[in-house]
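Input record (one chain):
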Amino acid sequence: MLEKIPGIELCIAENLSCLSFDVHAPLLELPRIFGTTLDNIPPPIQNLNIPDIHWIKLESPERNSLKVGIVWKTNPDSPTASKRSCKLKYFQSLLDIAGVTFYSLQKEPGLDIQLLETLPILDLSNQLNDFADTAGIIAQLDLIITVDTAVAHLAGTLGKPVWILLPFAPDWRWLLDRNDSPWYATARLFRQPKIGDWDSVFIQVKQALIEFMESQESLPDLPENFDQAYQYYQQNNLVEAERICRLILAEKPQDFQVLYLLAVLENLAGRNNKAIQLLNQVITLRPNSSQAYSNLGNILKKEGRLEEAIAHYQKAISLEPSNSSNYSNLGLIFLEKGRIESAIINYEKSI
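The corresponding structure, as predicted from the sequence alone:
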């Protein structure tokens, strides 16, 4: 998955000693190097490539059922595993909510396997061979409810709604006194009010899930809502168009048409980082959308992120070779970077 992210030329899992490079930096040193603060954390690159082989088709026992993935245990070898993990039994309180199908994304259920086999939860552990398998399943779910483990970060990176269950003293990434995350726009945090108090956490989660289901049932017809939002956009009533988009996304966060329109509105408002994040979500949902890649390239170019813009224009061209504007935009970037020959080649293709 990582090797397909724009800007990464090579991804090496092992045998690093055979490589020749000029500089290197540990991953967690990058925020210091780039001067990253809470106010300028870049959105995750959500257009992770999930190979078709990792798309394990899920079947829902109930038609139109909300598909929810759950994880209750972290890596047992972690020194903080005991405080970050909870027992599967706590999830039992959620199982009587109508219209929800639960899927276990727990890779190693361990001692909980006996209880798991008695519950109406679909166990996917035998299908989770690597992170790409997990990503392929998450992409098909509506919501992830998980303790603080790698699945939370993967779901957030994929732009999926993810509810993260945190201990009283959480990992530093989740900060304090807030229920959202500066790292992931789709994350919602549920915190222990006191050490070890998972009961209170699951009372909050159950109420939130009930409210979520009720709002799903009461949502008006989405196509009509989208048409109304688009009509306001055409009339240049951008505030009202944005309001309707956000109402729809509160209930249907994976509606790619609405995400795309909201990205356009954010771009028009000058909120480019938010527009980039939304377009990455669109690409996750519609990886063959040449228009999304093209518009993302436009915004990245405006932001001065030229190498990323080049990668997105090239992807757009591979999906829609007949679109001359992508060649023209590439030519402009290459000209700006002094790559005259490449600029000429792309200008000629745009004619």
